[in-house]
Design goal:
This protein has 11 helices and 16 strands. With about 350 residues, it is of the alpha/beta class. The chain has a 7-stranded mixed β-sheet with strand order 6-5-4-7-10-15-16, with helices on both faces. A 4-stranded mixed β-sheet has the order 11-8-9-14, with helices on one face. Strand 12 and strand 13 form a beta hairpin. The structure holds 5-S-methyl-1-O-phosphono-5-thio-D-ribulose.
């Protein structure tokens, strides 16, 4: 499905080591590549959500650390740059995971060898992310095939867990792309995902570009659609999955899981191994990012002349609370779709996954 001509979210030039990302704050209106040429540019891109989505945050941070080491590969700078990148966003554990991968690869080396190995590690992580997401697509497809009965398979998703959130394929969207490519008549309900509207701005854009039929719906309409029998399953991604199978994902995910359970609809969570926090016993221990209230109180879009504008929604004195993620307890999750196969969302299911991963 994805050929070499297709877009990816982060590209890297092997000769110049130049890293470019799609500035996702401008989508769906403008597709612009942004060159990340300093540690502060990498940090800014993650914290301001030019790149976002758990796997992509991790890959970007890996390249950011490699870039910092090309300037100064001392132990001090390794620690400083890693801490700066780790502080950009708190919830997606892929960020910590990717920094640990690069650090483990370089810290045993003399400083003169570190930049090259760090860049090579980042490159490998990027390639592996693409391969893992494609496997997630294949494994998720096995769960979708038995659900096909009527004239179309209606899948609901939330936020953006497509290739814009990874490098290619995505997590939650990978099984959908695979189903579409295999001839299954999929239709996707895209919930808009207030306040930053990743569903409207990113998921609908991605799906439209791939020719996958989709309809944007308000976050609040999802329960009603499920109750009316218009949803065959829900697939979302994850920013951090705890060792007991609790899943942290974009705010609003929990409400969808509750509604899916009440309406006997399968609720699947797609994630790579790098999203599992084995050190975290349960969802209550996951740090939930709180973002600026301005994201709730205002909204951005293009006007009739095509100019990007931000307008206030609320009265000037209004205050808002903006938690960016929520936790869905494991018992509401029908299965975890991973690159290693599909597993129960439970401590036992994750132990089985670990056995497959390590072969022990
Ligand atoms: O705040 P964001 O846009 O980084 O949140 C992204 C999500 O919540 C995704 O669903 C999650 O990272 C899974 S991505 C493959």
């Amino acid at each position: 499905m994805f050929s070499t001509d297709d877009l990816c979210s982060l590209r890297w030039d092997a000769v110049s080591a130049k890293v470019e990302v799609i500035d996702q704050t401008l989508l769906p209106h403008t597709l612009r590549w942004c060159h990340l040429d300093s540690l502060s540019a990498f940090c800014h891109a993650i914290s301001n959500m030019q790149v976002r989505g758990a796997p992509l945050i991790g890959i970007t941070a890996a390249f950011g650390l490699a870039h910092a080491l090309s300037d100064d590969a001392s132990d001090d700078n390794l620690a400083r740059a890693s801490a700066a990148l780790l502080a950009t966003r708190p919830t997606a554990v892929n960020l910590r995971w990717a920094l640990e991968q690069v650090t483990a690869a370089v810290q045993i080396l003399p400083p003169s060898a570190r930049a090259r190995v760090a860049l090579e590690t980042a490159r490998v992580l990027r390639e592996e992310d693409i391969a893992n997401c494609e496997r997630i697509g294949d494994n998720g497809l096995k769960l979708l095939q038995p659900l096909v009965s009527g004239d179309r398979l209606n899948i609901m998703t939330h936020c953006n867990a497509g290739w814009l959130a990874t490098v290619q394929w995505g997590t939650a969207l990978a099984p959908i792309y695979k189903a579409h490519a295999s001839g299954i008549p999929v239709h996707v309900w895209v919930s808009e995902t207030r306040p930053r509207n990743q569903g409207t701005n990113l998921t609908a854009w991605e799906l439209h570009r791939a020719g996958v039929p989709c309809t944007i719906v308000t976050d609040n309409s999802c329960g009603q659609l499920m109750r009316q029998g218009r949803v065959d399953c829900v697939i979302v991604g994850s920013d951090r999955t705890a060792a007991n199978g609790d899943v942290c994902n974009k705010i609003g995910t929990y409400l969808k899981a509750l509604s899916a359970r009440a309406n006997a609809i399968p609720f699947y969570v797609a994630l790579p191994e790098s999203t599992i926090d084995w050190t975290c016993p349960g969802g209550d221990q996951i740090p939930i990012e709180e973002r600026d209230e301005a994201e709730v109180l205002s909204i951005a879009g293009v006007d009739a002349a095509g100019e990007l504008r931000e307008v206030n929604l609320a009265a000037a004195h209004s205050r808002a609370l903006n938690p960016a993620f929520d936790v869905t307890p494991s018992d509401l999750v029908s299965a975890l779709i991973t690159e290693h196969g599909n597993f129960a969302a439970s401590a036992q299911g994750l132990q089985q996954l670990r056995t497959v991963m390590t072969g022990v």
